[in-house]
Design goal:
The protein has about 70 residues and is an alpha+beta fold. Helices cover about 40% and strands about 20% of the residues. The protein has three helices and three strands. A three-stranded antiparallel sheet has the order 1-2-3.
C-alpha cells in the first residue's frame, strides 16, 4: 500500500509519521532531488537511504528495488 503527504510539516515530522504508520520504505522527492533528477529511498527499518536516478522519467531501478524489498 502507499500513502502520500504534501508539505504537511518538516521532513523530520513526516518521517516520524511514516514510522508511526509502519512504513517500511519512504520515497523522498523534494527540491534537491528534483534538481538532481533523483529520489531518495529510505529504508525505515534499517535507517539507510540511497539516491536513485529517475533521469528521463526512467523509474525501472526504483521499481526493481522496491519489488525486491517488498516481495
Amino acid at each position: 500500500s502507499s500513502d502520500m503527504m504534501y508539505r504537511t510539516g518538516s521532513l523530520k515530522s513526516q518521517m516520524s509519521l511514516a514510522n508511526k504508520k509502519g512504513a517500511r520504505n519512504v520515497i523522498i522527492f523534494g527540491e534537491s532531488e528534483l534538481a538532481k533528477e533523483v529520489v531518495t529511498l529510505k529504508n525505515m527499518g534499517e535507517g539507510s537511504q540511497q539516491e536513485i536516478s529517475i533521469k528521463n522519467q526512467n523509474y525501472s531501478e526504483l521499481i526493481k528495488i522496491l519489488t525486491e524489498r517488498c516481495g
